[in-house]
Amino acid sequence: ETGVTQSPTHLIKTRGQQVTLRCSSQSGHNTVSWYQQALGQGPQFIFQYYREEENGRGNFPPRFSGLQFPNYSSELNVNALELDDSALYLCASSPVSGAAEAFFGQGTRLTVV
Amino acid sequence: AQRVTQPEKLLSVFKGAPVELKCNYSYSGSPELFWYVQYSRQRLQLLLRHISRESIKGFTADLNKGETSFHLKKPFAQEEDSAMYYCALSPRGSTLGRLYFGRGTQLTVWP
After folding, report:
1. Which tens digits make up the pLDDT trace of A47-71?
2. Position A109 confidence tier, pLDDT thresholds 50, 70, 90
């Protein structure tokens, strides 16, 4: 059984650019959630994907978007990057049973300069 | 709206001392509560959840609906308990792993 993997681990982008972060969910999990963790803060829920459809969204603007693929892997896209988007982005997958327990990846550290 | 509050950003105790990490929540319904832990250079992982009523690594947490609290306790802290601890809430009915986190408490256990 493989865990949640994210790529890349680190990324530096310029303000105004676009970025795509990737996540492979844990084997057997069909739900993926994305979180943003700013320095010194707890993770904040961005959105969740279940069976390739967005299933709930936190308080984030539309320039944050996502996709889920048939193999349950997922992408997080952020357009028009702002300096405040600098954060650790975490992906978490949940088991098919729908339990609220989430399994996290190691995260992608995004720096916007 | 749901909110999770961890009033202590930093907490230090000596090895063998009791430790309590505080967590209060606000939510109009009946939530699921969790404690997640992040050891140095490791990923965020589940420590325990209130519905399990388990003791994990000597830690316990009791949901107090009257005080809307879910404090994490351990009677005798160990150096390996040093880590970042996050309290999290999942609204019932939303299912599927949507979590709302507190800001975290950094626990340091001194030898």
Report:
1. 999 889 988 889 999 999 999 999 8
2. very high
Share of chain A above pLDDT 70, in %: 94
Question: In whole angstroms, what is the distance from residue B68 CA to residue B50 CA?
Answer: 13
A83 touching chain B per CB within 8 A: no
Mean pLDDT for B85-108 is 85
Which residues does chain A have within 8 Å of residue B43's beta carbon, measured at their own beta carbons?
A: 4, 104-107
**Distance, CA of A28 to CA of A17 (rounded, Å):** 34
Q: Which residue has the tokens 């459809």?
A: A53
Q: Is A91 on the interface with B (CB under 8 A)?
A: no
| Best B35, B42, B44 residue to mutate vs chain A (most A CBs within 10 Å) | B44
In angstroms, what CA-CA distances link B68 with A55, B1, B23, B32, B84? Answer: 27, 14, 9, 12, 22
What is the DSSP code (8-state) at residue A9? S
- Are B24 and B7 a contacting pair, CB within 8 Å? yes
Question: What amino acid is encoded at B52 in this protein?
Answer: S
Asked if A2 and A12 count as a contact pair (C-beta separation under 8 A), the reply is no
Q: CA quadruple A51, A55, A60, A65: dihedral positive or negative?
A: positive
Instruction: Give the start-end residues of each E strand in B50-103.
Output: 60-61, 72-74, 83-90, 100-101
| Phi/psi at A99 (5° precision) | -65, 150
